[in-house]
Design brief:
With 268 residues, the protein is mainly alpha-helical. The chain has 12 helices and no strands. The radius of gyration is 20 Å and the shape is elongated.
Length: 268
């Protein structure tokens, strides 16, 4: 995942802590107090210092979370399903721990876990009879929205366009297309500022769709063409650098360029 953020304001740090307290009981050093969660993570080989508050920035918790996330993604065979879900459950706990230390990347990564439903509906709930009970789609989406919002408001620019998606689709929140465009623009501006083609390309693709479809009024094909061409430039660079995950987005950008040129030339 792309890691870019601006300086995190004090109020955003406070909100990170407040959100974290809703999910897992920790103290000032972010120890894991749930003995079942501790035992689960220890059984999978997570070092005790990571669980006992000796990771002041949350960096090690995030690193271990990423290891389990990748392990879960690699387990695609039917006979590996149980191990896949186990890996994502470990991922959630570790990202929660990292977020408790104020890691904005813990917030971003939790957004991915919840929005893509990596735990297939089963997630950590403090004090529940089961360690990972079924929480329901509404709660899962609300968690995703809340995590992306905390990260985006803290200046993490990938979270900004993911938050825009949540507003645009009404996932975890009410539909708000004005807020969606605001966050897409913020993500685009941050991506350009930091020279990150994945971020500005992905955000520009969304802005192109906004303009082409006339989400805020009449279709604006010239504006849409400009955004699609920016998206094509950024996503082409990203794919060349090895981010092949964005090949489909690149195709969408190129198709958008073709459609808008045809509209502007009357070529249909």
């Amino acid at each position: 995942m792309t890691r870019v953020q601006t300086e995190m304001p004090t109020e955003a740090q406070d909100e990170v802590q407040a959100v974290m307290q809703d999910e897992m009981q920790t103290d000032a050093q972010a120890k894991v107090h749930d003995e079942r969660a501790r035992a689960f993570l220890l059984s999978l080989g997570v070092p005790l210092p990571v669980l006992d508050g000796e990771d002041p920035t949350g960096e090690q918790a995030i690193r271990w979370g990423a290891i389990f996330y990748n392990a879960g993604m690699d387990r695609t065979q039917p006979e590996e399903h149980e191990q896949r879900i186990e890996a994502f459950h470990a991922t959630e706990l570790l990202y929660l721990l990292g977020a408790a230390q104020g890691s904005v990347y813990g917030e971003l990564d939790l957004g991915y876990v919840y929005s893509y439903d990596r735990g297939e509906g089963h997630y950590y709930v403090e004090g529940a009879e089961e360690l990972f009970p079924l929480i329901g789609e509404e709660e899962r989406c609300a968690r995703a929205f809340r995590r992306y919002r905390v990260a985006a408001e803290a200046g993490e620019i990938q979270s900004a366009y993911k938050l825009g998606d949540m507003y645009f689709r009404g996932v975890g929140t009410e539909v708000d297309v004005d807020a969606a465009r605001t966050w897409y623009l913020r993500s685009y501006q941050g991506g350009k500022e930091y020279g990150n083609p994945v971020i500005y390309g992905a955000a520009a693709l969304r802005l192109g769709s906004f303009a082409e479809e006339g989400v805020l009024g009449e279709p604006q094909f010239e504006e849409a063409l400009r955004w699609y061409e920016i998206a094509e430039t950024g996503l082409s660079a990203a794919v060349r650098m090895g981010d092949t995950w964005y090949e489909r987005s690149l195709t969408r950008a190129r198709d958008g360029v073709i459609r808008c040129k045809q509209e502007l030339s009357g070529g249909y």
